Amino acid sequence: MQPFTRKVVDIIRSIPEGRVMTYGQIAEMAGNRRGARQVVRVLHTYSKSQSLPWHRVINAKGQIAITDEEARYEQRLALESEGIVVDANGYIELDRWRHYPSEIITEDEFLC
DNA sequence: AAATTGACGGGTG
DNA sequence: CCACCCGCCAATT
To answer: Is the C-alpha dihedral spanning A30, A36, A41, A46 positive or negative?
Structure first.
């Protein structure tokens, strides 16, 4: 497994229950600011074998981004079961549920 | 070797 | 807030 991939996996594993992170945010933290699409690839490849909390990853708009209908519904249920509020269109309030790893930025810093 | 393909994102109007 | 457009990048065709 490549270093970048390794980091992405670790980061996704570190997302606490009831919180979410975006593809771009994870990519940046793993060392590649423009690697959002690689994060997608990692999820496709390892979400099962590495038992990742894949449902805690959403896009920058704060929306569930999965294409597949079934999986999308599955993700909604998974998030709601952790207490996260998902609206009718699959949107989540990012400023409320986003996880800010301390290595990058804290919510206070962000709001400042 | 060139084109295509995504669970993407930021800038612009 | 929204729609568009364009840049990204590695795996797969």
So the answer is: positive
